[in-house]
Amino acid sequence: MEKMTDEERRDFLQAGTRTAKLATVRVDGRPHVAPVWFVLDGDDLVFTTMATAVKGRNLRRNPRVMLSVDEEAPPFAFVLIEGVARVSEAEPKELLKWTTQIAARYMGEGQAASFGQRNAVPEELLVRVTPDKMTAIKGVSE
């Protein structure tokens, strides 16, 4: 088991269709975890969520988050990200740009436009997490 380099961490986070598991805090203090599709913008993780979703409501009230992205096959690896989410009701053009990029990663270029359009709706929030702390480990089972 060893730490990833910055380049390895970026490559790991951008590989394939890995989802991030987003941890937020409910109003009563209980944790809430949900998978999110994301893309990187520099070191920031960018994703969207409905304003009425549990995670959307939690993020607006308390923007402190933790995300976990892992490789579920040997030799196993993971990246943990702690940070504060910036949540916004983006302009339609800006929201469409990000929903289309996210859709391209998870649904492929052929379906990116339709999935991007489907998710670029007024109730959708744009979320950007700038990492305060990252832990990136590879070769867990080695």
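Next protein, fold it too.
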Amino acid sequence: MRKIREVLRLKAEARLSDREIAAAIGSARSTVQECLRRARAAGIAWPLPPECDEEALAAHLYPHAPTPARYPTPDFATVHAELARKGVTRMLLWQEYRARHPDGCQYSAFCRDYDAWRGRQDPVMRFEHAPGDKLFVDYAGLTMSIVDRASGEVQTAQIFVAALGASSFTYLEATLTQTVADWLGAHVRAFEYFGGVTQVIVIDNLRSGVARACRYEPDLNPSYQDFAAHYGVAVLPSRVRKPRDKAKVEVAVQGIERWILAPLRHCTFFSLAELNAALWAALERYNDRPLSREDGTRRSRYLELDRPALKPLPAQRFQYATWKKAKVHLDYHVEVERRYYSVPYRLIGKTVDLRLTRHMVEVFYRGQPVATHLRQDGPRRFNTDPAHRPERHRAVIELNHERLLERAEAIGPATATVLREQVHRRTHPDEALRTSLGILRLAHDFSTGALEQACTHAVELRTYSYRAIRALIVAPPAPAPESSPTPAHDNVRGARYFT
């Protein structure tokens, strides 16, 4: 259109010949003549009206003549909806179309036109990823086999893939399962491979990452939430059945499958470590491959873009923990693998959250920590913090002769002597606990002075029971009368007479 406007201008203002105009714009004379003929036929003259832009000029000079349809056009909206149903194929829909329109298109044209229609309905958005912003993770569709050298048993290994958004720098690792432990362990090693942490992780909706999928508020797995909090990253689950939300890792998976997994398909691996060693060696070559549409390699772009923008790794490596719910028993303990850990007794009957690491058991109630214990592996089954017991239970547990004797000595030596005699006169020391408690209780019922005086009499009388001491307090013995000296007489025989 720019050249056509120049042809009209030169013809009207400069009054050049057709040959001169063709030389000026670098076109054939016949092209200039055809352009002027179409302008006369459309009634267009220079200068063009202001509303006549390039699109309007093209419409006037080259009006579109609709071509007659060679065959009835299929209803591709209906075709698209039908393909979403299980068991429905393009071939089946084409056969139904030909049954209705015998003069319809062939199968290849049916598929071509449908793909063109779908492309117009769902245009692709191209994202620009900021350096160090997003990490895309997923598992590859292909798996690798590990053979047990002794038994010959074949085990399938899953392939974890992670790709940075800006540089497409890629990490992969083989894991035996897709469970939470393997999933999080692969994340930790991926961050360590990249040498830093991104702002966001974009994941698929697998169960190890998302407990409940939702378009608007997905629920993350609690262990994955711990991981995200430890590294200070946000987790964005992609929409269900929307692979374009994580197109970066989908392309990375495709490249990994083509350039790493497929070349290793004939190799035999006898351990997970052996498989990962081969994968990581191939990964270095993959990241150093020149990019087809951009300059440099994934590694060079990573060093230029992502590496400077990544957040530093935390000082401590993430420690994997599992979460479970438990109900507090009547003895204010919760059970973990047939071992019991105490919680505050006020939570009896409540449901608490347990965070279990290799060495610790942490108990949370309504998001707040309420107890922490070292995880027990030996024969000990109960791990009880005395602070978790009710006061009356602590009083019973802490009851012993040493504590009672300290209280008795504070009252007086006679009271302490009575308590020692209680222990010595019993078959088992614990039999004296209740009696000793009763004797000390008398200091509260009466007074410490009265108890000490009664115990002094009890020691003289060699009676140490609770009833005797109480009787001595209620009815203390009368003081003995003072005795007069015996007069000297020949008939009075002293004690020496009988020895």
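About the second fold: Residues 322-390 form one domain.
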